[in-house]
Structure formats: structure tokens, C-alpha cells
Amino acid sequence: MSVRHSSTEASMSEYDSNCLDTVKKEKETTQDVVAKEDIAAASYVSGQYSIPNCIHVLRNLKQNGRLYGKRFSYALELIKDSKNRVIVISLKDCFSELEDWIDYKFNK
């Protein structure tokens, strides 16, 4: 019986160890998420997907006669969201696709 008891203790010890590992991984994951959010928050000012870079793209679109009036103002509102900034920068060389996307969002 004592053998079973010690094997049960060993099993419980492994279980506890696995639980601790899982908790550590969850904490690391949470810390990673927070770090990524901090980086994303900083990148709205500087970085590839920054608001100034997006404004530059939108101004180019406006200068080419593809974006005007309320649509331009709406596009400026769109780039407040980091996901939209990624789309704007990704489509910066494809004015017609960028214009279509802005129209889609504007007419939603």
C-alpha cells in the first residue's frame, strides 16, 4: 500500500509541476501580450505603421484626385485603429485598392 501511496504522491507531484508550468506559460503569454500592446501603442507615432506615415499615404491619394471631402476626413478617422493603419500602409502602392477599401468602410 505504501508503494501505491508513493506512486500517487509522485503522480501528484508531476501534476503540480505541470500545473505550475502551465501557469508560468500563461503569465509569460500575458506579459508578451502586454509588451506587444506597448510596442503597438508606441508605433502610432513612429514606426512603419505610424499615423504620420498613413497621413502621407492618404495625402498622396488626395493629391491624385482619388480621395476628397468627407471621405478624406473619414479615412483620417480610420487610421486611429492600428489594424486599419496596417491596411493603409500595405496598400500604399495600390491606390485603386486603397480607394476601394476606404469606400467600402465609408459606405458600410
Automatic annotation (TrEMBL):
- Give the highest taxon in the source lineage: Eukaryota
Q: List the protein's name.
A: Uncharacterized protein
Q: Which organism is it from?
A: Pisum sativum (Garden pea)
